[in-house]
Amino acid sequence: MRSINRIQILFLSLMLALTSYTAHAENKKIGILVFDGVLTSDITAPLEVFGVASRKTWFSDYTPIVINVENKSSITTEEGLSLNVDSWIGDNPHVDVLIVPSSYTMKPLIQNQQLIAFIKQTSTHAEWIASNCSGAFLLGKAGILNNLKATTWAGGEKDLQEAYPEINVQFDTNVVVDRNVITSNGSLVSYQAALVLLGKMTSERKAKEVAEALQYERFSHQKYLL
Description:
This protein is of the alpha/beta class. The protein contains nine helices and eleven strands. Helix content is 42%, strand content 19%.
């Protein structure tokens, strides 16, 4: 009888541990910031890459979510796409990965103290921080890129260097990885950047699996594994 009780206790302990792990795993979030006027491809690329990945058993513990800078239920991109959001920065959503996109008009975003505070706070616990295009200026404002290699939109590298001298700006480079921060040129390069990020989070083989599902190599010969 004692033997049976021990087995039952061990079984229950194991089930509790697995339940606890599953609950924690299912809460992992990839947060993608959005706002009115955001460049469409900066957000649709990671949404597609991580959306495809999250349907794989090896990545099902991550869920992409869309976080608005303003307290509104939807945004409209620069190109006119309407998109519903899951949360906004005022809710202080906890994410394990944060992706920061761009706009043709960055000044109001850079001057948004609540946004910069959210990015800075998230960087203290997130596994990865990433930006596309001029989203790097927001990371620069938050101090996240200090003493790191980084890039921004092609042609904007000099502006980034002048605005934030502490950054080691890389010129004529699609995607830059330094520590747990990834920056990219944005636009169509956002697909490459998202695949690089996925590869860093998982493995080259798994990133390639998603790239093949998206037919990435039929579109571009640019490598997505760094």
